[in-house]
Hints:
Layout: H1 2-9, H2 19-31, H3 37-49, E1 55-60, H4 66-74, H5 84-100, E2 108-113, E3 123-129, E4 135-142, H6 147-159, H7 170-186, E5 193-202, E6 207-215, E7 221-228, H8 234-240, H9 251-263, E8 267-274, E9 283-292, E10 297-305, E11 309-318, E12 327-335, E13 338-351, E14 355-368, E15 371-384, E16 391-405, E17 408-426, E18 435-444, E19 456-466, E20 473-484, E21 527-540, E22 543-555, E23 565-576, E24 579-589, E25 596-602
Helix pairs in contact: 2-3, 4-5, 6-7
Amino acid sequence: MSDIKKVHQRGDLVTEPRHAASVVRSIWYEASSSEDRELFRKRIAERISSPVFLTYSVVSDDEKIVDNIEAHLHGLVEIKRYAFHRSVKKIENAVLEAVQVYGYYHPQIKITLDDPQDLQNPLVHVEVKCGDPVIIENLDVDYGIDDEVLEEIRQKEKADKVLSGEVFNHVNYENFKSDVLSTLLSRGYIKAKIAVNEVYIYKEENRADIKIAISPGKRHRISSITYSGFEESHNEARKLNHIKEGDFYDTQRIAELSQDLYQSGYFQMADVNIDDKTDSDDSVPMTINLARRPNTILDVGIGFSTDEGPRFQFTEKNPWINDYGHNFNSTGKISAKNTFVRGNYVIPRENPINDFYQISPRYEHKDNNDTLYDSFVISGHYITRIHGAWDKDIFLEYGYDDFVQGDNKGWSSLLMPGVTLSRTHIQKSADPAWGYRVSATVKASLEEIISRERIIYTDVVLKALMSPTVDSRLLLRFEQGAIFFGSMNIIPPRLRFFSGGDNTIRGYGFEQIAPKDSTGRLQGGRFMTVGSAELQLPVMESMRLATFVDMGLVTNDYAKDRDIKVGTGLGIRYISPVGPIRLDLGVGIKEKHIPVRIHFGIGPGL
């Protein structure tokens, strides 16, 4: 017993009051048949002087439960290595609780130390064979709600997999109850609650019965709508508000109203408030608080590009000109080679955002390589997005151009009515996974009125974004442009087709692809066909590697010109809060002197 007394004398190394006694007893039983007293003393010293906490390695035939098992094990009070044998049941119970969450009530659990003889090795192996899960046999749900909302709830049953024949999963079940209450609240059942919530697990039969009863209360309606602040705007705010007194309370419609009010540009503040604390059993009042934006909003910027040199940019907005909601905005870019200034005077009709008239004067000066021109254009538009699925821009424009393009010097005067139809459908996300955009423009000059010649201009753009896998992206793009009739001496450069650059054929300079005249200078073309395919693959969090192929042709005669340009290369896509940031290294192939270009952009590319 003298050896044991020595252990007690090392009290400064004991971390718990009964630590030494329990360690000695456990080792005594382990070594009682051993004649190696030196090993006995060594084991006592190791356990008392440097207690080691258990760590865990988990494997299972169902990988989705591993993280939950690890979370439960890490949630245990730290277990010291010497106490492993006494804690096996505690570990087993933690594992059992973790797997039952996923509907496994008869798992086979094996818990072993990596090396039982190594007192400093804390690694515990946990092997779990799940066995057969509990299946939902009977689902008895009493909602007591309108059929319109009931169909939405049925979709939640499918999404959360709370259906007869599905595995009973506690996480899915809790999500389902939360989704049901959230949906009911958003659709006007403000006082809804779960009155009955019963789950019967028959472990031996691996089945579960669920009984839920909802006490929805009455579905609330909007009792009144009050506007406050910025009185002059109330009429335009009413145009944006599709919610009427007596309509059912609906949080999605309320959120859309708030978004539309801000999107109109009229308001510095547009708060839509619902008094859902009302004592009424079936109605709630709605108040819309409005504050006017400043009379003039001006943004300016100074930059530099290798193509243009120093440049100055500005945008200016007058969001509220009169009590009819008229507004004006302008934008401009000024540099030594390119100057562009445009204004838009907007007159709202039925909807200030989606249905309005617009008068747009613009001036452009361009001096870039083989192009020199001054262009004055004024156009009147009727733009509507509220009739049918397509956005429509019906316009009449007059343009005067004085230009030199290559060896072609001329002027043009064109009055052109036209229409642009477009449709965009894209996932609302900083990193959209799907979407498409279709745009088609047709305009024709009126030869008998002001115009020097008859010209018909067409341009069609198709873009699609899809995800072959969750984290990959495939972007496809196609554009076809054509100009019919009119001589090249009359067609102004702003209508002619050029290609090259980050939005057409990468690897070539901006607008450096076009037919050339006899002196070798760019002439511009009547026809353009451009296509592109880009695949983005994840390489790390928030970043993808892109590989692309662009090809196209700008020509005056498809039969005589087969000089198809091809650009290819690699790029990086960084998924930022403002959208994907694109950096590409493009190479033009099939050329004697292969061009290489770096391209930069922001946005999903649609």
